[in-house]
């Protein structure tokens, strides 16, 4: 090893700190051997999901079955040695062990025999899914109660005659001590955990479906995951931060889809004051434009509930438009005063004038609007908003979930040569990066824009932020939701008012930004990847946000494979529009596969009948060689650690640092 290879004097302080963890030549050498070995393992499997929109049961099932990967492994392992019904039952057991065990106990007369057969099969599946990991990583994934036992079973085979009795006695003893159920549950959970090494969520956990809070509960304890915030997530983050316009939007969307579960049961938001206000204020208004959309995830409403929901829906929508207008007035630099649409209504004639053209309104019932000052809240609306605001800012569980979202993500992520973001990177019409002002006098584009935006939004939750910055950040959540140059929206306008009050569908059109028009252009995608510093020949952009209309033949793979759009309509509200029920992009050691899911029936159906999500797999891109850990970002990190340890060895052997006294103990 050449002396010139290291500048020991420069690195001596760091090496002394490193020596505390590896105080001897033997320990440093052992760690180098361990890290070199890890570099030659297959890369872990990454799963990418987007636009979950509160569909907890379907999302949970996709995690449990690893987007169909567990079923494929069961087929590969047992082939024709098991009947289809047996393989289906084994998969259901892995997904829902507690519930399946109870069903088996109620129907199987020889439960001891079932325990024996099932445990051997589960150990085989667990051995297969753990094969690409080090023993150390697998050990860290095991529950403490069964860690030693599972390790022994994974590393001893019954085809070794000398070990057959040993393995069988372990299983016999698990059963005889009454721990069989607990063991099966534990090993099934280990299989689920090891089947997905890293989960990427490309935004929009919230809105439309009823279970966003349950998804966040699940993610709070999930092993390895990240999130790139979506526009609907930003809306709830803004509501949590105390942005009243965001609070109104969150409530409006919940009422629009008749899904109040997350608000009321999940976060304890009290909507009784809104109901009371709406019934009184709109008692003579049919509110026909505000009848909720009932999707597969919504409960059917009786006539009385439907009418009350419509009244609440209209009440909060009117307040929302007022609150938004107040922010637009406060932030003239956003240039969004043209969206203060109550200013353009002729309340005597029941018309509105937009871009020089006058349209009749579908409804001219606005009992809380003063035509001379249309964006001012009435005293009753002010009191209502104070109560709603308080309900959001004191919701402990909402704050916990938003802190989880802040802790696991931001606006974008670069991971293994893939650029992940929810919606767009604002572009000019010629495909160049668009400069966007996010603070007065401060404009950014590309990577800097997303980075600075994420930092600004975080300031709304930081008590040490300057009050002026914190107030601006709180307002900025609204711009991120519907601002023309927002990387989470990127359209000319959000035509919410027009869709409620104007029949002419021409006014409903939202002109998409340049990113959505140019994202099928390989040169444009390369320019974005270059701007974000994404290297390598097999680099990609992966995002969601805009549902892919698979039923109409739209391809989620764009720009010659450089860009993948994985919003396939997870939400039941989109199923009719997209024709499918979402995508999972799977990136394993042999390349990319896109898994297209059919609609999920229910967890109960999956447990009782073994119904799985039907999925079809499309090979997107296969690697010329099996990718190893060495080919990943983790590999770069490990090579850096190896280099540091080699420098430490050099320092030990040349007397710059002496080995610790620990070696003598």
Overall geometry comes to globular
Give the beta-strand count.
17
Q: What count of helical segments does DSSP give?
A: 27
| Poorly predicted runs of 5 or more residues | none
* Spatial gap, N to C terminus: 30 Å
Strand fraction equals 5-15%
Give your account of this protein's structure.
By secondary structure, the chain is of the alpha/beta class. Helices cover 49% and strands 10% of the residues. It contains 27 helices and 17 strands. The strands form four sheets. It has a seven-stranded mixed beta sheet with strand order 7-3-2-1-15-16-17. A five-stranded mixed beta sheet has the order 8-9-12-14-13, covered by helices on one side. The chain has a three-stranded antiparallel beta sheet with strand order 4-5-6, with no helix packed on it. Helix 4 (69-78) crosses helix 5, helix 5 crosses helix 6 (97-107) and helix 7 (111-129) crosses helix 9. The mean pLDDT is 90.
Entry summary:
The chain is α/β, with parallel strands linked by helices and 665 residues long. It contains 27 helices and 17 strands.
Name the features.
about 10% strand; 7-stranded mixed β-sheet; 5-stranded mixed β-sheet; about 50% helix; globular; about 675 residues; alpha/beta
